[in-house]
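Below is the record:
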Amino acid sequence: MLFRSNLGVVHFTQIILQDSGLIWNDQAVTPNVKTAAVATDLQIQSLLLGRPAPPAKFNLAARIDGAVDEAHIKGSFAPVPEQLTAKLAIEATGIRAGPLASYFPPGVSLGLQQGTFAGQVDALWAAHEKGGNKGHVKLQDLRLGEAGQPTPQLKFSSAGIVIDRLDPEAGVIALNSVTLDGARSEEHTLNSSHLVISYAVFCLKK
């Protein structure tokens, strides 16, 4: 880890973290959940804290014992409080419920034994000039399915939510749009060539 600091501004030129993990032991559910999330390799380049800066680049390889054999997340993010941004490409293999099955509602199962996942995320959360926040989350080219199967169980071209303003103190929730494009599930429970919900404003009164 290399860094420079000047008057509250910290610049990490490089951060490398290997074979570090978080042990998860939840005895509040039945069966009890015991697993670990392990970052096998994390690399962050040019992370600047304390003032606005270009997004830092990062690459993460990780796993969740018994649930995800291998996951890779790469992209960029900017941890500026006034405007948090992230653009990520995610791939994962060896997905199954495993020890996390206890968190599924009764009668619901994941249905994957060696699942694969891929998708891209574009997210923004920023301060709104009139108070509160604004932001968006956009997903692209999402695919979830069983390894070796020609057709994914779930896929869609794009989906997203855009919030023009979220200000609970002022009692304002301004939703610009919710979109879903090219969605399809293997069980035909979700099929949509194009869905758009446009602009809604909710006024909350105390």
Remarks:
- The radius of gyration is 20 Å.
